[in-house]
Design brief:
The longest helix is centred in the middle third of the chain and has 20 residues. Strands 1-2 form a two-stranded antiparallel sheet. It has a two-stranded antiparallel ribbon with strand order 3-4. Strand 1 and strand 2 form a beta hairpin. It contains five helices and four strands; from the N terminus they run ααααββββα. The protein is mainly α and 189 residues long. It starts with 17 loop residues before the first helix and ends in a 20-residue tail after the last helix.
Length: 189
């Protein structure tokens, strides 16, 4: 395994300091990739439903919001909704920047990694429509970026098509996944 710099990694950080806690989780995933300990990671940063979980209170700890973090998506309070979305995006950008600034082969770690970031919770509802999703990385794996895609109306396709494209990008030869109808040609050549 390569030597890695773990200076600054605080695995004793409390979830009551959500910025440092989330960044520690991202750092651990980054180090797992860097040491080739795994090629796959799944990370749920917030509680989607459990009011018994302290992750339910991230927005309280990070922004001083009085209420359950989950409720920001439903109520969209003017003072907090945009701030919360931005705060979350900044934490994810931290991870993407680490991948982008780490050389790997003839590119960067981000070029060779497919990162899906999103939520199972569209704004203001629990529907299965309009999931906020971002796909990053994989430039050396055939992923195409730089556009906002809206899969609505006659352009509607199953979300599982994205998973087929992601699997194919990392050389998993799949014909389909769940209710997919094929690959998502808009993002994977």
């Amino acid at each position: 395994l390569p030597n890695v710099d773990t200076k600054g990694l605080n695995i004793e950080v409390s979830h009551k300091d959500p910025k440092e806690y989330i960044r520690c989780m991202y750092d651990l995933v980054f180090l797992a990739f860097q040491t080739d300990s795994t090629r796959f990671a799944s990370l749920m940063l917030e509680s989607e439903q459990s009011s018994d979980s302290e992750m339910w209170n991230y927005a309280t700890y990070a922004l001083g919001y009085k209420g359950a973090t989950h409720d920001i998506a439903h109520k969209r309070p003017a003072e907090y909704a945009g701030k919360w979305d931005r705060w979350r995006a900044e934490q994810h950008a931290y991870f993407l920047k680490r991948l982008k600034t780490t050389p790997e082969g003839n590119g960067t770690m981000l070029d060779r990694t497919v990162v899906l970031w999103g939520s199972a919770h569209p704004h203001a509802s629990h529907s299965t429509k309009n999931y906020p999703i971002q796909l990053a990385g994989g430039n050396h794996l055939g992923m195409k970026h730089g556009k906002l895609h809206r899969f609505e109306g006659d352009r509607k396709v199953p979300l599982a098509n994205l998973f087929v494209s992601m699997l194919r990008a990392v050389d998993v030869p799949v014909a389909g996944f769940a209710d997919s109808t094929g690959a998502m040609s808009e993002i994977h050549g």
